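Re-run with default settings, no changes from the original entry. Doing this only to confirm the output is reproducible before filing.
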Amino acid sequence: MKTISDLGDLRGKRVLVRSDFNVPLDGTTITDDGRVRAALPTLTALLDAGARVVVTAHLGRPKGAPEAKYSLAPVAARLSELLGKPVPLATDTVGESARATVAALEDGDICLLENIRFDARETSKVDAERAELAGELAALADAYVSDGFGVVHRKQASVYDVALQLPSAVGTLVLKEVASLRKATDDVERPYVVVLGGSKVSDKLGVIANLLTKADRLLIGGGMVYTFLAAKGYSVGASLLEADQIPTVKGYLEQAEAAGVEIVLPTDIVAADSFAADAPHTVVAADAIPDGKLGLDIGPDSCELFRSKILDAKTVVWNGPAGVFEFPAFAAGTRAVAQAMVDAGTHGAFTIVGGGDSAAAVRILGFDEAGFGHISTGGGASLELLEGKILPGIAVLENTEA
């Protein structure tokens, strides 16, 4: 893949950057600006080179038309604070405001276009529609830099099609993401341990199947663990359960045993009366969750078990919290996994936090991000890379001649 330095002298050139600013909001307040801060190295490098930087990004899931709640205005304000310079926001994606805002840029200036998903062509399944939008984006720039790792697994106009129409390069963030995650797919240092959590087994079927051929040990927590426990014939009470996935999970357990891959399940569970921060709760055996109780975290014995299974690893990948970490009473399991990864890192392990809720948990629970080898900005993209899939936004950069 070409890098920014391969684009030549960028002074005075308009550079379109696809960033990932899909940040969590409380009203108009950004509650976790990790993705905005992750974009800074690429943006700063371009600004220092004298480029006129035009950023396009998305937020949320608008249905192809403007929605005020999904405006990038809070991102523009935060980006301005972080860069220490104005970041004007165009009021449209590729229209009159976008053209005027870009035209007003001087060397070393930056602007942000409004949410690209306000245009239905961005996510269209029709190649010609995406190409049309990509052409309008390309008309605003002289070169393109892909730096939104969280969307490189999507074949979308601002991710894939525009790279076919402009001299293109990969940004610092995407380059780092791919290099780091490939440490968990190519020539992995062993023992290789993967911690999987989150709510649904069905979200991770592909990555589990792939990891059963690569990992030495899989630790299962989060809401998805109850389908694993049910597959072993245990009672899971009122816990989250994907009953239709039980046969698939039974197959995984058999496949793991045959391949010598260790699957580690919790031995105890923090079971609550309801899904609420203040719900009464107790610790129960993982193989006997009472009727009416729902598991919201792994128990204290399981925290120690998971820790022991992480500490001797040389490569650790974590995707998905171990419990409902947003509720303090059910955050101990997620905290234990994060702490074990930090401690493993001090003993030489390369540790990867696979984006999404896991990355948010690291910050919300107060961990120093420097304690991890790599914290991904893209949950879905990191999973698909670990799954061995070809990511369109990466493939197009590897194949595009500038």
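The radius of gyration is 22 Å. The longest strand covers residues 14-18.
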